[in-house]
Amino acid sequence: MDVIDINSGLGKEDVFTRAEDFLTEKGFRISKVDQTRPWGGFFVLDESQIREFSAMFFSDIVLSEEQLKQKLSPKFLLVAPGARLSWQYHFRRAELWKLINGEAGIVRSETDEQGQLKKMELSETVSLKQGERHRLVGLDKWGIVAEIWMHVDPDHPSNEDDIVRLEDDYSRK
Predict the structure, then answer these.
(1) Which residues form the Mannose-6-phosphate isomerase type II C-terminal domain (predicted)?
(2) How large is the C-alpha radius of gyration of the chain?
(3) Would you give per-residue pLDDT tens digits along the chain (173 residues)?
(4) Residue 1 resides in a domain
(5) Per the count of CB atoms within 10 A, which of 10, 49, 139, 145 is most buried?
């Protein structure tokens, strides 16, 4: 069941508006919105709401009290139809993803060689290990993915600079 009404005819601005309205209605405070990504964009939510975010979108994952005290960077990723994030990995984080609306696919591998595209299932948690190669892929409709970063070193948390791009459709490094 779709939690946000994002039919295939909506443009990027409308999809972002509906996602923002949904998050606001659910009581989440948005720290940052980025609609400039060529593949779509994201919302970063208030870190202090990680318990509510985890309970709403990752109720199948048990986070320890120690983990909940650390920076977990709750986000919403919005991937456009036919768009792809870079083929990438991270040194300082693992990630949890859950498709909460629309359609999206994932490619993943333990090596630099890309695996097969797998369609993500609604409400199924995907756990990406530190260093695991991965790519989020937009399919025929917009996809909305809830994401939590699991930082390897809480004293030196991961950030956007911790992206090692192996391949990118948009020539980013």
Answers:
(1) 73-168
(2) 15
(3) 347 878 768 899 999 999 999 999 999 999 999 999 999 999 999 999 999 999 999 999 988 888 877 888 899 999 999 999 999 999 999 999 999 999 999 999 999 999 999 999 998 999 999 999 999 999 999 999 999 998 888 788 888 889 999 999 988 87
(4) no
(5) 145
